[in-house]
From TrEMBL:
InterPro entries: BCAA_transport, Leu-bd, Leu_Ile_Val-bd, Peripla_BP_I. Keywords: Amino-acid transport, Signal, Transport. PANTHER family: LEUCINE-SPECIFIC-BINDING PROTEIN, PERIPLASMIC BINDING PROTEIN OF ABC TRANSPORTER FOR NATURAL AMINO ACIDS. Residues 48-371 form the Leucine-binding protein domain. This is Leucine-binding protein domain-containing protein. Gene3D superfamilies: 3.40.50.2300. The keyword Thylakoid does not apply. Belongs to the leucine-binding protein family. The keyword Signal applies. The lineage of its organism: Bacteria, Candidatus Magasanikiibacteriota. It comes from the Bacteria. GO terms for biological process: amino acid transport.
């Protein structure tokens, strides 16, 4: 009896002891790790952001295209020197479109489908822009042109922008200058066939007739034409008091040379494609008058930066620079997302560009249009007062 009670008591004590031991004994390794695994630092993307560029580096308007491409480089250099797009440099992918719609279309397809760009700077010639616009629109890639001016670009698509005014304005002011300032009441119009030439010609003729002027001759020629003697002879034999000559550089110079050869001495006027350094250098354009989108001509710093790259501050250069800066500012906020970049471009208002203050409307067009009237005098370009 006592033995069993004793055994019971001992058993109880053992159970209590076991319970106490289980609360104090470690159930695993609870030692403090003094060398914890560090949390990996976030990966910073420093890969380049490709931006496409389309314009004429050879062929018609090559000089203007080269100036525009160098102006684009100036802006890219400044953006990258300041840290790029949140640490990512911009990388330009230029494509020579020769001011030709077919070459421009091929260039656009390469930039979109091979290089996978979200933004294309260009085109320069209106025919380049209208050729690329459908594929850019279909693939949701932003296009922003520094100098395509054909009126039909206004309705080219939601992803298509330009910071240069439409020729709906340029044709109007040119007609007013021809009729009111030069006092010419009968005019001949000779225009390159295509989006640019046709749009500018129609705008000029419409306004000129509204003013009371008479168009005594109007004819188109294909862009590749270099012999315009037939058309110029018809003009010489007409009642025209002046000629409105819409041309790209090479055909324009050929036409001026041939006009002298046949003795055509009428005053001539043209559009912004004449703002090419090759024109005054040719010694063929003395007295020629042309219109070009107004820019801040006092910006000596920009002009000197272009000169350092072997370029001139011609028609497409200022807004080529501005477009890079505008896109870069937007990318810093929203990244390399074309849809977001597009939405932000519609919000651009009062941007202080070299090519004037820029505000974009619901069509992606600039809201203001101001022009300089320039002439060639003693082999140099002068702004007419």
């Amino acid at each position: 009896m006592k033995k069993s009670l004793l055994l019971g008591a001992v058993g109880a004590l053992l159970l209590v002891g076991a319970g106490c031991a289980s609360t104090n004994a470690p159930t695993g390794d609870t030692s403090i790790n003094t060398n914890p695994t560090p949390t990996p630092a976030p990966v910073v993307d420093t890969s380049p952001i490709k931006i496409g560029w389309i314009g004429p580096l050879t062929g018609d308007l090559a000089s203007l295209g080269q100036d525009a491409e160098k102006a684009t480089e100036v802006a890219l250099d400044e953006v990258n020197a300041a840290g790029g797009i949140n640490g990512r440099p911009l990388q330009l992918v230029p494509q020579d479109s020769k001011c030709n719609p077919k070459d421009a279309s091929d260039a656009g397809n390469k930039l979109i489908n091979v290089d996978k760009v979200s933004v294309i700077l260009g085109g320069l010639c209106s025919g380049e822009t209208t050729a690329v616009a459908p594929v850019a629109e279909q693939n949701h890639v932003v296009m922003i042109s520094p100098c395509s001016s054909a009126p039909n670009i206004t309705t080219a698509g939601d992803y298509i922008f330009r910071t240069y005014p439409s020729d709906a304005f340029q044709g109007k002011v040119a007609a007013e200058y021809m009729y009111n300032t030069l006092g010419k009441k009968k005019v001949a119009v000779l225009a390159v066939l295509g989006d640019y030439g046709t749009g500018l010609k129609n705008a000029f003729i419409t306004r000129y007739k509204e003013l009371g002027g008479e168009v005594v001759f109007a004819e188109d020629y294909v862009q590749e034409a270099r012999d315009l003697r037939t058309q110029l002879t018809k003009i010489k034999n007409s009642d025209a008091e002046a000629v409105y000559f819409i041309a790209y550089t090479e055909a324009g110079l050929a036409g001026l040379k041939q006009a002298k050869e046949i003795g055509l001495k009428l005053p001539m006027m043209g559009g912004d494609t004449w703002d090419d350094a090759k024109i005054p250098e040719s010694k063929l354009a003395e007295g020629f008058i042309y219109t070009v989108g107004n820019t801040d001509s006092s910006n000596v710093d920009f002009t000197s930066k272009l000169k350092a790259k072997g370029a001139s501050n011609t028609a497409c250069a200022p807004r080529s620079y501005d477009n890079v800066k505008i896109v870069a500012e937007i990318m810093k906020r929203v990244g390399n997302d074309a849809s977001k970049i597009k939405d932000e471009l519609y919000k651009v208002k009062d941007y202080p560009g070299i090519g004037n203050t820029i505000t974009l409307d619901s069509n992606g067009d600039v809201t203001t249009a101001a022009y300089d009237y320039k002439t060639i005098k003693n082999g140099k370009v002068e702004i007419l007062k």
